[in-house]
Amino acid sequence: MEEKTKVKRKGIHVIIYFLLSVLIILSLIYIINFFSLKQEAKEQSKLLNTIDIYEKESAKEVAQNISEDEEEKVESESKEKGETISTENEEQKQETERMLQVKQLQEQNPDIVGWLEIENTNINYPVLQGTDNRYYMTHNYKKENSKNGSIFLDAKYNWNIPSNNLLIYGHNLGNGMMFQELLKYEKESFYQEHPVIRFTTADEDTKYEIISAFKSRVYHKSEKNVFRYYFFLNNESEEEYREFVKNAKNASLYPINATASYGDQLITLSTCSYHVQDGRFAVVGRKH
After folding, report:
1. What's the pTM?
2. Which structural domain, as residue segments, surrounds residue 2?
3. ∠155-281-257 over CA atoms, to 5°?
4. Whether 271 contacts 172, CB under 8 Å
């Protein structure tokens, strides 16, 4: 009897040791993956730091090249209009430098179509566009395999159609990277603090005013009279455009005064959400 008890205890000890070993291995894998993804995010942020450095250097050069007479003239004209001295010209120069930097990034990878930023969030990434919507789900901007994937524009987006919808996707990662912070728009207070999306291409540096934030899901083909926002990117008519804006406004989690009229360029940011099976979360903005 005592021998059986010893054998039983030994078996329990073996199981405990096995479970602990599995737990340790899984913890190590998680830690390695976490720091690997963090390092990748840092590398992507270096791209923006490069842009920022060029912008600051450009601003300094502009300031140094302005003569005292020009400064007095600008100040005098501003006073006459009852306005404070504006930095509009400097900002314009910075924006131009930012666009030039996007062009330089395109030399590294021509699939880079722009840079997306929501100020004071982690959403600050290059935007890629591939030949399909699968590749950049699992590859970074260097075309390396990555669990993070990339922020990417729908492959079917047609740059030649005016009043179009930039449909941009990104993973919802638990580590706060990519589009995970997009879900914070569930709260109206977050929207009020972050009402603008900035999207820079080689041709323009544009701000989009948010008009809607809503939860959705991927609908079955058999479901009728549902809002499949993810199908709207190359609008074919004014009616289709107005219908999309109407549905987006109706779906919004809270009222937003800003809206869009036919002719306004749109942007839609989309990510996974786990409130339902195949859930999605989307934020829609219109070009200023």
Report:
1. 0.72
2. 1-108
3. 105
4. yes
Give the strand pairing for 266-273 and 279-287. antiparallel
For residue 127, the tally of other CB atoms under 10 A from its CB is 24
End residue of a domain, out of 73, 108, 143: 108
Asked whether residue 287 falls in the same domain as residue 205, the answer is yes
Q: How many domains does the chain have?
A: 2
135 and 54 in one domain?
no
Task: From first to last of the 288 residues of the chain, give the pLDDT tens digit.
Answer: 555 555 566 667 667 766 666 667 665 655 555 455 455 545 554 455 544 443 444 333 333 433 344 444 445 554 554 544 445 555 555 667 779 989 999 999 999 999 999 999 999 999 999 999 999 999 999 999 998 999 999 999 999 988 899 999 999 988 889 999 999 999 999 999 999 999 999 999 999 999 999 999 999 999 999 999 999 999 889 999 999 999 999 999 999 999 999 999 999 999 999 999 999 999 999 998
Question: What is d(CA 228, CA 111) in angstroms, rounded to the nearest whole number?
Answer: 27
Domain ends where: 59, 83, 108?
108
Give the closest residue to 124 by CA, choosing from 174, 180, 54. Answer: 180
237 shares a domain with 171:
yes
Residues 130 and 243 grouped into a single domain:
yes
CATH number at 232 reads: 2.40.260.10
Residue 104, exposed/middle/buried by CB under 10 A (0-12, 13-18, 19+)? Answer: middle
CB atoms within 10 A of CB 67: 8
